[in-house]
Every structure is written in C-alpha cells, then in structure tokens.
Amino acid sequence: MSKIFRSSAALFASTLFLLAGCHKGPQDGVVATVNGRPIQRADLDKAYDAQLASNPQQQTPSQDMADAAHLQILQNLITEEMIEQRAAKEGLTATDAEVDARLAEVKAPYTEDQFQARLKANKLTLDEVRRDFRRDLTQKKLINKEINSKITVTDADVSNYYNSHKAEYNLADNQYHLAQIQVTNQPAQQAGNLQGSKATNDDEAHKKILALKSRLDSGEDFGTIASNFSERQDTAPNGGDMGFVPESQMKGDPTAYAAIMKLKAGQITDILPLLDATTHKPAGYSIYKLIAKEAAGQRDLSDTRVQQAIRQQLHDSRLQLLQAAYFEMLHDQAKIDNYFAEQIFKSVAK
Q1: Are strands 175-184 and 282-294 parallel, antiparallel or unpaired?
Q2: Per-residue DSSP letter, 189
Q3: Is 287 in contact with 212 (CB distance < 8 Å)?
Q4: What is the DSSP letter of 268?
Q5: What percent of the chain has pLDDT over 90?
Q6: For the chain: N or C, fewer Cβ within 10 A?
C-alpha cells in the first residue's frame, strides 16, 4: 500500500471518528431537538397527561397506544418549536405586555383565590400558563403575517362557489339558531365552563338553574351566563351557541320543541327538563334562547349571510391548506433530531 493511500485511509478513518464524536445523542430528559434547541421529556409527559385527563372515561391505553400518542404529541411540540424560532427570526414573538393582557382577560371572571385553585386543579404554574399564552399569541402573529395576509377571496370566487354548490343553500327544513344553558345532575360529567361550576345531584342542579333563570330575567346577558355556568362542554365556550338546528331534529324533544316554537328572536324559554340523549330520561335542566329563524327554501347569493358564509368557508379552507404547506416548509428547513422516535423504533422493531 502506498504512503499516499495509507495517509488518505487514515485521514478518512479519523474523519469518521470525529464525525461520530460530534454527533450529539439524546441527553437526559431530552426527547428531541429542533435546530439544537431541546424539547424536554417532562413537557412531553405533561402534555400526554393533560390529554388523558381531558377524557377521564377513556380506558387505560396499551403501551403501543400510549407510545403512539406520545409520538403525535411530540410532533406537535416540534412544530410549536419551529414556529417559535421562525417568529423570533421575524421579530414576531409575543411581548410581555401582550401576554399580560391575555392573562388579565382569562383571569377576569375569577377572584385571585379561584384562579389559583384552577391552576392547582389543572396542575399548572403561572409561568407555564404564561408560556402557553406566549406560544399561542406568537403563532397567531406569525400566521397572520405569513399566511392570512396572503389570502384573498374575490367576489368571483364567492359567485363561482355558490353556482357550483347551489343545492347546499336550498334549505329543506326550517332552521332555528339556538343557544342553550344546560345544567345536569350527573356528578361524573366535567363542568366545561369558565367558573368550573358543576351540579352533582338533582337538588343542586335545580337550585342552580333557578338562580341562573333569575339572573337572566333581571337582564344579564345569556351568552355570558352560558360561558360561565352552562355544563354543556361543546357550547359553553361559545356562549351556549348551538348554531342552526333543523326543525325536524328539534321534534325529538317535544317539550323543548313546543317551548321554542312560541319564541320570537331574542326571547328565552322557561326552565325545561333536560333529557338524556340515549335513555331519554331526565338528566337535568335547560334554558333555550332563539337567536334567529331561517325559513326553508332557496337562499339567494344576494343574501349577505350567504356571501359571508361562503367567503369565510373559502378563507378557512385556504388557510388550512397554506398553513399545512407552511409548516411542512419549516420542517424541511429545520434540523430535527427525534430521539424518542428512534427509541420507539429500536425497542419495537426487533
């Protein structure tokens, strides 16, 4: 072997050794890195525990299911880290003042003791809440600048969509835009409202709905009461708004249907029995508000509500598409090491 070849081979070997030595493996407590910035195992586990807690009736997942959930959550954390880094580069990181304003808004319905109790119940610290708010506000600022500002929906777009989907705006049934305040007598159900207010038996539920009806009768805002006290988790965050409900669907609850049919827009029902959707047995109490009524028949493009709905739908679909593409671009541009994924693969693929 020539001296030149031996020297080249030695250089190649030493280069491999140096490269191997420079590769940074997973550190203690680090499940991934994004451009060198670590994502901690503690943050991954906390997000997973929160996901489990949000569905307490779910059966304990198998190890494979738990690992799959961890992988998905970690992908979300990686995306969040990429967004934070890109926002910082663009000078769009949420300021302390913006975080303070968001925190004040969230704390407004509570006393300080109530707010601290909610933090404790959710196993959160104030610093963690502020961090989450900063991430959320930062992401919104980045998306508004990089994506929302680039979306245009023209009148021609709206017209073309309407002409292609005209049948969707021909209502076969009268539609009623409703809001609801719901109080249940089911102790296992989560509150789902801003106050964490939950009746645990029928006596408590009846007293609570009477108090809420009294506040409504005295002129308090229906949406505010619903957000703070309604126990229907899917509508309470939106002020009890159920959207438009077809008349044929409403007939499944004859008592509520008869009461709603007597309302004019803006009026509310008396306290009504709430029926369990499966057993049709009493499960609590409810109060409905009629926001608007939409008669059956073809809705024309000249209707501003039709135009607004189509414009919003087209905007949202384009936002979803561009956001997915943008996040994929960030992923391609980033240096990502997913140590947790490597660990899962090595432990399962034997």
Answers
A1: antiparallel
A2: S
A3: yes
A4: B
A5: 69
A6: C
Residue 17 has pLDDT above 80, yes or no: no
d(CA 78, CA 72) in angstroms, rounded, equals: 10
Instruction: Spell out the domain ranges in the chain.
Output: 3-147+330-348, 173-295
pLDDT (tens digit per residue) in 92-124: 999 999 999 999 988 887 789 888 988 887 788
Distance (Å) of CA 76 to CA 82, 143, 332:
10, 16, 15
Compute the distance between CA of residue 314 and CA of residue 77 in angstroms, rounded to an integer.
28
CA separation for the pair 78, 334 (Å, rounded)? 10
Fold of 3-147+330-348: Triger factor/SurA peptide-binding fold (1.10.4030)
Q: What is the pLDDT of residues 158-206, one digit of tens each?
A: 999 999 999 999 989 999 999 999 999 887 677 788 788 888 899 999 9
State the architecture of 173-295 in CATH terms. Roll (3.10)
Which amino acid, 311?
Answer: R
**At how many degrees (to 10) do helices 41-53 and 63-89 cross?**
120
Contacts of residue 330, Cβ cutoff 8 Å, sequence gap at least 6: 79, 82, 83, 86
What confidence tens digit (pLDDT) does each residue in 167-178 have? 999 989 999 999
Q: Are 253 and 242 in contact (CB under 8 A)?
A: no
